[in-house]
Amino acid sequence: MAKEAVFKFSDISFTGSLSKIERKKMYGFTDLIITDPEEKVCEFATLTEDGMHILPTGSSGIMTLNSQGNYINRNDGKVVDAKGEEVSKVPSIYDQDVELTKVSSINEYLDMNVKAIYQLEVSENKDAILAALEEHKLFHLIYNYRADYEGDDAYLISNEEEVFMIVGNKINFEYIGLEEVVIETDSASDKTEESDDFDFGML
User: Please, what are the averages of pLDDT over each run of 10 residues along the chain (203 residues)?
Assistant: First the structure.
């Protein structure tokens, strides 16, 4: 059974699960399979810089090192911001009720860098959330599938029948300004120069 999250706005509360909308489900997809002359399927591998060793898939990993180059367990480290202050984890939407907020401007949604789209399968109070979206158009929330140090921006929208969640990151455009550059020209002198340069013998 799919996980369900509880969403709240004002006096409305509803429960739903997420179903990811993928292009390959809508339009289909193709797989490129590479084979050798004997029709055996080739597998991806990495060649070391010295050219002496071949590393097949699964033979390498990632580790965390301190400033002295010693291995440290990731659970023993801590995440800090630019000021050196420890950052708390953003909880998963499944760990607690999700608070929805109204969006002041649709530009906030239109300026988003979209990462994924989900259909929200509402199991209760679907009519109430559809009515709320009809009135307010958009709701914003912080989306995290699992607890992490940074959540994604997400917006709930509807097509009057179903509810969708658009997940991504807000892009804050910085307005620089617009300077009007005016170049003054003497139109009379331009016409004179053009007539002087014209050679009727070319006709």
Answer: 86 89 83 90 89 86 84 79 82 91 88 91 88 91 89 92 92 72 61 53 54
Q: How far is CA 202 from CA 6, 150, 197, in A?
A: 82, 72, 11
Specify which residues 116 forms β-bridges with: 167
Strands (E), the chain: 5-9, 12-20, 45-47, 54-56, 64-65, 71-72, 98-99, 101-102, 112-124, 139-143, 152-158, 163-170
Joined tokens for residue 53: 């060793």
pTM of the complete model beyond 0.85: no
CA distance 43 to 62: 21
What letter represents residue 16's amino acid? Answer: G
Q: Point out which residues pair with 72 in neighbouring strands.
A: 64
CATH number attached to the domain at 1-26+86-193: 2.40.290
